[in-house]
Amino acid sequence: MDNFNGSGRRVVTDQAGLNSFLTKMYGNMTLAVLVSAISAWLTMNVFANQVLGYFQQHPGMVWLILLLPIALTMGISFSATRNPVGGFIMLMIVAIIYGIEFALIAGAYTGQDIAAAFVSSAAVFATMAIYGTVTKRDLSRFGAHALAALIALIIASIINMFLKSPAITYIFSYIAVIIFVVLTAWDAQKMKQIYLNYSTENSVMGLAIVGALQLYLDFVNLFISFLQIFGMSDRD
């Protein structure tokens, strides 16, 4: 009896390919987080005077660092599978810019708040990413609801920019954590399915870059939400 048929070999190959893809995706995502952390540290501790002075002299540049990551994110999503190297470079630029942004807002929080937010977001992210990767349950319906809730939250947050209500901001931070908990699990599951369905038609590294971007943004938003929660709790 032949116990080493072609189907068995194909399953082993598919699993090995999936493991390689996940390693690349989470490796690039972790690298992006590390680059952001280094950028934030350098901005706060080495180039603080130069950076603050530059933005004081050129206040319009604040809009550039706010809008450029959005443009780069779109560029990665559309081009990474065709140009993985370009996608990787854009991902690192996004990570650097967000690191600078973190440094600019870090002054409003204590080191304890920042550490607590990072540990909390890392723990929640790892738990939900693992769950999304291994669960057999289809999370697409939950992900769609979370995405709709995120759009509503963005609109409400823009309105609150004019109302300037700390209580609303505090509540929205908890809502954001819930939303990105769901989105993290959904994105992890979605990228696994995209690899299984389209890896033969696209660059595996390109798909890993796209997945790393999605998960990096989930982590960043979890971190910001936890930072607001811990910061406002301390003030209370």
UniProtKB/TrEMBL annotation:
Pfam families listed in its UniProt record: Bax1-I (PF01027)
Primary localisation category: membrane
CDD domains referenced in this protein's UniProt entry, alphabetically: BI-1-like_bacterial
Annotated TM spans: 29-48, 60-81, 88-108, 114-134, 146-163, 169-186, 207-230
Coiled coil: none
InterPro entries reported in the protein's UniProt record: Bax_inhibitor_1-related (IPR006214)
Superkingdom per UniProt: Bacteria
Location relative to the cell: Membrane
Keywords on record: Membrane, Transmembrane, Transmembrane helix
Recorded topology in the membrane: Multi-pass membrane protein
Family: Belongs to the BI1 family.
The name this protein goes by in its record: Bax inhibitor-1/YccA family protein
Originating species: Limosilactobacillus panis
